[in-house]
Amino acid sequence: MDDTLACPICGNKFRNIRLPHKHLHKINKTSTYFERTCSDGMNHSLQLFTDEVSGQVDLIKLSLNPNYSKFIEIDFFNKKCRIICLKDSKPAYIEIQKILPLDFPLLTKLKERVSLYITFS
């Protein structure tokens, strides 16, 4: 993921942060943390945690709206997802016991699925 220079959602150039040896409590594992944020446009945010040895992505956290109030975490290590909705700075979580498919660069289907989960939760 080191060579990802453009946002997979809109194609804008990324601002990058890389932190090695970050402990990911959710999966009890030390990973390399990457945060990518669009430099222009919608300010999409993409956070990745990768295995330090294999380089495989363990977890992705993706913002789904421009005001950072709706996120999805895709946990490839445990094969599940979590939707996070922020209202008045308080998180509400929806646990999903499977991985929702990502359709980069067009995330319309993912956004629709997340909206359905939120509506029926």
List keywords for this structure.
mainly beta; 121 residues; 46% strand; globular
Give an account of the 3D structure:
The structure is a single chain. This protein has one helix spanning 108-119, and strands at 14-24, 29-38, 45-51, 57-63, 70-75, 80-87, 90-96. It is mainly β. The protein has one domain. It is globular.
Q: What is the element layout, followed by pairings?
A:
Layout: E1 14-24, E2 29-38, E3 45-51, E4 57-63, E5 70-75, E6 80-87, E7 90-96, H1 108-119
Q: What share of residues is helical?
A: under 10%
H/E element sequence:
EEEEEEEH
**Mean model confidence by pLDDT:** 81
Question: So what's the overall shape?
Answer: globular
How many discrete domains? Answer: 1
Instruction: List low-confidence stretches.
Output: none
Order of strands, main sheet, comes to 1-2-3-4-5-6-7
Radius of gyration: 14 Å
Ends: how far apart? 34 Å
Got a strand count?
7
Specify the biggest β-sheet: 7 strands, antiparallel
Structural class call reads mainly beta
Short summary of the structure?
The chain has one helix and seven strands; from the N terminus they run βββββββα. With 121 residues, the chain is mainly β. It has a seven-stranded antiparallel beta sheet, with helices on one face.
